[in-house]
């Protein structure tokens, strides 16, 4: 704690003594505050932005690596390479974070509404990302289902001018990555962008090879009153899956995979097609809408310690339509801003495995209104509401063999206030109700005992403040998130359950400063107290949630064309997944140091990165699991040790 206080003091002092020639940092446009582009954040929420420059300086190879260690985000990665089910946790949800943190791409939800598969961020290549916006805390009114702990909105690049680039990365575990892109904009308003990624690697663990391809094509047309676009995205990921190791196996050989998993794999083909329109109806009102179709076909084999399992087949067809009106109305000498919209989602899901078949025809209809109302030049109020309905027709070999309709509807609201005493400070407070609908995997059980779960509801209270100067900034947020009927998986029962009342309380601190013309430092810290508040596990910690996490960042530019980036990431100990009784050994805390350097000259870029510099042996995640003799034991997913990466690229 003394070190944290000292560091924050240094940041504050540095803001007063930095050299005058350091350039002023301009405001970054964000869309996640009102679902339309804003130069500031008018709503009572804490929103952080990772810019294209931040992405380049980090040397990250994928979205999971980029977000690991960002303020308030805990990343759980089964295999340590950002593929195959990396989970992003805002507000301390552990194993169910994939259903309580909403991941979006250009405002289109990536989360699956029908089944519990985690949002597949491997479909988004880093070379296609303009920036990432992170909403800390509940956003049930503006974004709806699953926006419980927060929202991560990935904004992709739009064609601006002629640009072409190509990069080759080689690294540990026989890894090769080739990326390329080309874009241009013409005088007639037409522009285009093409981007491709090809990656192959053996990965850190045995039986974990990966072959990955991603292709994105986009065309835009800008006219006097707006813009239309069309985009296609094709992703193919073929991966071997090594599964977890028990404690004695980790001690013997942390890179091994048990023999029963030798034929386990996961092959996924994803196709995305979307079209969109942004049209100005008048000087004050605009109409934005997007129609998207996502098709996911997956073949996989996932064995048990008691025996190998044959391949299973899974398909998911998701249709979304998201129209909204955004406009302003004069009020109190300023302008009130309103967002009126609908989120319509239709999913057809099918699974065929050795456990039987499972189908769901799901429809989600949601309508919302949010207004940002100025009181005077310092105060504004944000208020809104959302009405959402879900319609499920489920057929399952065990629970609902004859088919079952499980329908529900819910209304949530938000109310908050923003106070700007001067140009530097922004203070806010808000209450936001949230919810998530139970999914087909949660409604059903292989034992046929589940007859449908209650949908999860909750309310989040937050207060916070931001100070932004020319060369430094500081942000603090305190929150209290209370949930009823939280949905979680109980491995001892082999089924999902509604937990008794649960609570998350926490504090997030962020700070950064340019302490010299060539040096910028940043620091973030997150404390979360995630516990059950009643029932058999009253007072116990929620599994897979670190109470303490922190990151220290340093960017140093000794030469005009050379940038050095270092990060020290700490994650505290965690209760194993499924261990609601808190009776098994905990996942140990760990600290990892990564360094990256990049040199640019005459269109060329040369980079080198070392992850886990001090060769720390740790497990990023783990869970209780049954041995071949059906004894419950602690199991772990070992994370990679020290690894090296070299990149060479050229921009035309």
What does this structure look like?
- By secondary structure, the chain is mainly β.
- It has a single domain, classed as Beta Barrel (Maltoporin, Chain A).
- The strands form five sheets. The protein has a 23-stranded antiparallel sheet that branches. A five-stranded mixed sheet has the order 1-6-7-4-5. It has a three-stranded antiparallel sheet with strand order 13-34-33.
- The longest helix has 16 residues, at 2-17.
- The radius of gyration is 24 Å and the shape is globular.
- Domain tally: 1
> Compute the gyration radius: what is it?
24 Å
DSSP strand content: over 45%
Spell out the CATH superfamily. TonB-dependent receptor, beta-barrel domain
- Overall residue-averaged pLDDT value: 91
Quick tags:
single chain; 652 residues; Maltoporin, Chain A; 23-stranded antiparallel β-sheet; 5-stranded mixed β-sheet; globular; disordered N terminus
Question: Outline of this structure?
Answer:
The protein is mostly beta strands and 652 residues long. It starts with a helix and ends with a strand.
Q: How are the secondary structure elements laid out?
A:
Layout: H1 2-17, E1 46-51, H2 52-58, H3 63-67, E2 73-76, E3 87-90, E4 101-105, E5 108-109, E6 129-136, H4 140-143, E7 150-156, E8 163-171, E9 175-185, E10 190-201, E11 210-223, E12 226-240, E13 245-246, H5 247-252, E14 265-280, E15 285-301, E16 312-321, E17 324-331, E18 334-353, E19 356-374, E20 379-396, E21 404-419, E22 425-436, H6 440-443, E23 456-468, E24 472-484, E25 487-490, E26 495-498, E27 502-516, E28 519-532, E29 548-559, E30 562-571, E31 590-601, E32 604-611, E33 619-626, E34 632-638, E35 643-651
Parallel strand pairs: 4-7
Antiparallel strand pairs: 1-6, 2-3, 4-5, 6-7, 8-9, 8-35, 9-10, 10-11, 11-12, 12-14, 13-34, 14-15, 15-16, 15-17, 16-18, 17-18, 18-19, 19-20, 20-21, 21-22, 22-23, 23-24, 24-27, 25-26, 27-28, 28-29, 29-30, 30-31, 31-32, 32-35, 33-34
